[in-house]
Amino acid sequence: MKRSIKNLLQIVLLAIVCFLAYAVYMQIKTPLDFNEVKSLRDQDVINRLKDIRTAERAYKQVYSKYTGSFDTLINFIKNDSMIYLIKTGSADDSVAVAKGLVKTIEVKVAVMDTIFKKGFDADQIRYIPHSDNVEFILAADTLTTGSKVTIPVFEAKAPFKTYLDDERFHQELVNLIDRQKTIGKYPGMKVGSITEATNDAGNWE
Fold first, then answer.
1. C-beta separation of 100 from 72 below 8 A
2. Is pTM, for the whole model, over 0.70?
3. Between residues 106 and 169, which one has the greater pLDDT?
């Protein structure tokens, strides 16, 4: 009888040791897995934010402002054109100037053929990767700088919770968001700002 109890206690202790070892292992492994997933997903989101920035800068080049509408931005990418000035001849060549050979020609080039590679899917630019078709938070405005100059600005944001939400990493995500808020940083990826002049920089740069 005593031997049976002793064996039972040994089994229980072994189970407890195994459980504790597993718990410690998961405490180490889960944050590492989260960081690996975060790194991969962050990069996909950053790439999409760079595409948005490229499109917004092209839009500003044509219209002298940014847009806070993805419908407008996508239509611009798919259907609009950009004007480029091509100069022929040299203004320093007096003979060419006298003969009227120095000219500036306007050439229209489709936006899609100018700023993105062939096969680019403009319709996807609005969606945050690894989310359930959640759209980036897009806004555009004007900002008056300290030197009293009014400049157009835009920002596009993707909260961490939209693309890192995973029941495996619930606590890690909560901790990440809390840390960002504690130090006064946006809890996600973003490019540009409508509250300060950032030269369209991303918060990963």
1. no
2. yes
3. 169
